[in-house]
Design brief:
The chain is of the alpha/beta class. The protein is built from ten helices and eleven strands. Strands 1-11-8-7-5-6 form a six-stranded parallel β-sheet. The protein has a three-stranded parallel β-sheet with strand order 3-2-4, with helices on both faces. The longest helix is centred in the first third of the chain and has 23 residues. It catalyses: (6R)-5,10-methenyltetrahydrofolate + H2O = (6R)-10-formyltetrahydrofolate + H(+); (6R)-5,10-methylene-5,6,7,8-tetrahydrofolate + NADP(+) = (6R)-5,10-methenyltetrahydrofolate + NADPH.
């Protein structure tokens, strides 16, 4: 068996096109332009690249992009004051504070100061609680992207056995909540799960988000299962640096029915869903219907 490759790059391009079409209609019919504010503290190289890509794709979707780049020694009081100003700005519908923050800043405090309605990362404790109780919330971007791809591949997910390997607040836990919301039977596993291979082999949907390179191998995959690889790990192989996922791609692809590659799988969906969340936040703030197919 050769797995169908789920092309996250192409899927993300389609999501961005849908967002852009909705934004164009909002501008024409309502005179509204969704706005995304991104706050970067310090000069972490990876974060700088990520923020630049977010800004570019925000503008390409027809949205307003507000970038705030602050020095690494910015005080907590100054950062909180900026967040308060963005909360009060009617032109800003989404606020994202890029993580990680410098060590002297309390990330939890900063994130929970963001207006939950503008928390397009879905990290605010209120949004976490709403998602966990099955209520309308802002959903973390990476799990939302995974859900979109799974719905596209399977149609209805109800009744499928899903195993999520990883228990982080950013991916593992919200991914499990989303799958529960679509009536999957969900198991959360992790690096300390007893007989992890056997647990994984029961999965019709296997989501790997554990942060360990190539930890999930082909013998852990149920024949015909859908494998979503959230991991992005930089390793050295044959004297060259390369990116690999949490899944050993070659062995898993020989068994699975469908699989996401790394790179080019889940990764591109994160920014696409950030734009979708900003659009959703704008619609909710103005009492307008939410865009179909772009929310959980």
């Amino acid at each position: 068996m050769t797995a169908r490759v789920i092309d996250g790059k192409a899927f993300a391009a389609n999501v961005r096109a849908q967002v852009a079409a909705h934004v164009a209609r909002l501008k024409e019919e309502q005179g509204l332009t969704p706005g995304l504010a991104v706050v970067l503290v310090g000069e972490d190289p990876a974060s700088q690249v990520y923020v630049r890509n977010k800004g570019t794709q925000t503008v390409e979707a027809g949205m307003a992009s507000f970038e705030h780049k602050l020095p690494a020694d910015t005080s907590e009081a100054d950062l909180l004051a900026l967040v308060a100003r963005l909360n009060a700005d009617p032109k800003v519908h989404g606020i994202l504070v890029q993580l990680p923050l410098p060590a002297h800043l309390n990330s939890e405090l900063i994130i929970n100061t963001i207006d939950p309605a503008k928390d397009v990362d879905g990290f605010h404790i209120s949004n976490v609680g709403l998602l966990g109780t099955g209520q309308k919330s802002m959903v973390p971007c990476t799990p939302l992207g995974c859900l979109m791809m799974l719905r596209d591949h399977h149609g209805k997910l109800a009744g499928l056995n899903a195993v999520v390997v990883g228990r982080s607040n950013i991916v593992g836990k919200p991914m499990a909540q989303l799958l529960l919301g679509d009536s999957c039977t969900v198991t959360i596993a992790h690096s300390r799960t007893k007989d992890l291979a056997e647990v994984c082999r029961r999965a019709d949907i296997l989501v790997a988000a554990v942060g360990r390179p190539e930890m999930i191998t082909g013998d852990m995959v149920k024949p015909g299962a859908t494998v979503i690889d959230v991991g992005i790990n930089r390793i050295e192989r044959d004297g060259k640096a390369r990116l690999v996922g949490d899944v050993h791609y070659e062995s898993a692809a020989a068994v699975a029915g469908a699989i996401t590659p790394v790179p080019g799988g889940v990764g591109p969906m994160t920014i696409a869903c950030l734009l979708a969340n900003t659009l959703t936040a704008c619609c909710r703030a103005n009492g307008l219907p939410e865009p179909e197919g772009l929310t959980a």
